[in-house]
Write a structure and sequence with these properties.
With about 325 residues, this protein is of the alpha/beta class. It has two domains: about 5-230, Spore Coat Polysaccharide Biosynthesis Protein SpsA, Chain A, CATH 3.90.550; about 235-300. The protein contains ten helices and seven strands. The chain has helices at about 15-30, 45-55, 70-80, 100-110, 130-145, 160-165, 180-185, 210-230, 230-260, 270-300; strands at about 5-10, 35-40, 60-65, 85-90, 115-120, 160, 190-195. A seven-stranded mixed sheet has the order 3-2-1-4-6-5-7, sandwiched between helices. α5 (about 130-145) runs parallel beside α8 and α9 packs antiparallel against α10. It binds uridine-5'-diphosphate and magnesium ion. The site of magnesium ion has 5 residues, from loops. Uridine-5'-diphosphate (UDP) binds next to β1 and α3.
């Protein structure tokens, strides 16, 4: 199969008919063998009824439905599990992403050897103040921390080699940082293509202001997991040791000062309390490190690496 098109959707029944018709037109114009995987993330409108009808009429269009709303990341993750195409393309259901980009994205994966290509909404049709500015900030932080030179990490329109989507797990709100997940799994050839972005024609955006808070916290998680996920003690242990030593050093200094001079009052000095607290925090960080090692050691994916081999090894 040439291409799988994965579309996460939540209450998009107005857009779906046009979207499906458009995708069908593009793949038939380019004679691609394809599947469209519509992942209904617990819609409460008529999206699922449409998908059921549509998939009867065209067996290339397939549907997966969640019983309730789990989020875009979960929807993408299920779509990735089901995808069978050599190239997997994701796009939003609201027609802000154009299906016309599919052939060119597929070409970049096949002919230019990219593991994944991310769309870049260079000219964006969203509200400037609430979306475009914060998004610029996010992208700058993500770029600086991950070393991946993308302008638009969170673009819904992306293309992947099949093995990339099979080796990453998208959960929580991590759909914003899939390039970082891919890089973490060892896929380094990550490209970018300027794509056409369109104003939302039907329905409303599904993400409110919470996207900014959650987005930053998730970025912190992802960077931490990528670096220390398998060796948490090296992070917590180092931090704990530094804290403990600072606390211990200050305490020893205060004790000596007390021994040397009789009218030196320990309890009158803020430094005394700070030293104690620092030692306690140090110990706690150390113990957190041990706990994290125990958890990491029991994780089922502790030895999950993606391998290739010759002669069926
Ligand atoms: N979406 C989803 N589950 C959610 C929220 C959104 O599957 O909980 C889908 C939504 O239907 C759309 C895509 O994710 O296809 C992008 O959402 P939206 O257009 O609301 O985001 P924006 O373009 O405003 O960033
Ligand atoms: Mg949108």
């Amino acid at each position: 199969m040439d291409v799988s098109i994965v579309v996460p959707l939540f209450n998009e029944d107005e857009s779906l008919p046009e979207l499906c018709a458009w995708i069908e037109k593009v793949v038939s114009d380019h004679q691609l063998s394809y599947e469209v995987i519509l992942v209904d993330d617990g819609s409460t409108d008529d999206s699922w009824a449409f998908i059921e009808n549509k998939s009867r009429e065209n067996p290339h269009i397939k549907g997966i439905k969640f019983q309730r709303n789990y989020g875009k990341s979960a929807a993408l993750n299920e779509g990735f599990k089901a995808a069978q195409g050599d190239v997997v393309i994701t796009m939003d259901a609201d027609m802000q992403d154009s299906p016309d980009e599919i052939p060119a994205l597929r070409k970049m994966i096949l002919d230019e050897g990219f593991d994944m290509v991310s769309g870049w909404k260079k000219k964006r049709y969203d509200n400037t103040l609430t979306k475009n500015l914060p998004s610029k900030l996010f992208n700058a932080v993500a770029r600086a921390n991950s070393g991946i030179q993308l302008h638009d990490f969170n673009c819904g329109l992306k293309a992947y080699k099949r093995k990339v989507v099979k080796s990453i797990e998208v959960y929580g709100e991590m759909h914003r940082y899939i390039p970082i997940l891919a890089k973490g799994s060892g896929f380094r050839k990550i490209g970018e293509k300027v794509v056409e972005h369109r104003p939302r024609k039907y329905g409303v955006t599904k993400f409110g202001w919470q996207r900014f808070v959650n987005g930053f916290l998730d970025l912190a998680t992802i960077l931490f997991l990528g670096k220390f996920g398998k060796r948490p003690m090296q992070f917590f242990g180092l931090l704990g040791t530094v804290f403990f030593l600072i606390g211990l050093g200050s305490s020893i200094y205060l004790i000596i000062a007390k021994l040397v001079s009789v009218d030196f009052s320990l309890t009158n000095r803020p430094g005394f309390y700070i030293a104690l607290t620092t030692m306690i925090i140090g110990m706690q960080l150390f113990l957190t490190g041990f706990m994290s090692e125990l958890i990491a050691r029991n994780a089922p994916e502790r030895n999950s690496y993606l391998i290739e081999s010759t002669a069926g090894l």
